[in-house]
Amino acid sequence: MSTTTRGVLTARDRLRGGQRILFIDDRVPRETSGFGDPRALAIVRSLVGLGHSVSMFPTAAAEEDWTRIYEDLPRRVEVLRGYGARELKRFLHECGDAFDTVIVSRSHNMKLMRAKLGEPRSWAGGARIVYDAEAITSTRDVLRRRLFGESVSESEARRLVSAELALARGVDAVFAVSADEAQQFETVAPGRVHVIGHGLGVRPTTRPFRERRGILFVGAFHELSPNADAVLWFIRHVWPRLREQLGDQVWLSVAGQNPPRELEAQGREGIHVLGEVRDRAASPF
Fold first, then answer.
1. What would the pLDDT profile of 158-195 be if each residue is shown by its tens digit?
2. What's the structural domain count of the chain?
3. pTM, entire model
4. Do 25 and 103 belong to one domain?
5. Residues 191 and 214 in one domain
6. Domain around 8
7. Calpha distance 149→236 (Å, rounded)
8. DSSP letter at 263?
9. How far apart are the C-alpha atoms of 7 and 168, rounded to whole Å?
């Protein structure tokens, strides 16, 4: 990282007004990725729409091509491609004071930042530090572990939640995804918690409801996502009853990235596993 790079970051957007914002997340967010990505993308788009200059720092240093990077992302967003978590400390040391606000998305990235850089006040000069918690992940991790037969005591569950909430200590603001989780974060960051959920715009198609017959599930499938478990349960326990009563008048379409092999192997009549669908409004569900 050179002095020239730092100077460019500082001067580049001065004439545009607004803040210079560094957004730290795993990867460039996309509409179809799930796992909190659509919400992260909505936040970035909103920041750009408000006139701020946004730079994205993906902690995973995957070398995606630029066409893929800007598939959903506004062109005005700078993507600091190729640095990754290993270069994060050096980047902030050399260029941190070029930003007015640093937003850290998700608990594991906040944990990474604290491990590499210590307390938030020392990260980026006088920049404000915002923790976008996205969700309290330890709660659902405990439920997942119990679902797979692991014994997790209530005291251990409380300890994990407390440790995750503590990640918000010392930051200037916390974004929570719901009022319930905001109330929990208030215990460690009183008066600094804001609820930013995920709103979806309604885009009705031209086909009236009486002409529709199918059921559509939309959701990406990832290793730690509950989507696969939910769909498989529906297919095994609910779908046979629906087909028994409605026959071929009803069918199920499953849209989402990385459908698991167990889902594709179900072979149930009337079930269509579509994978990723870029334009759901144009699809004949």
1. 999 999 999 999 999 999 999 999 999 999 999 999 99
2. 2
3. 0.81
4. yes
5. no
6. 3-195
7. 20
8. H
9. 31
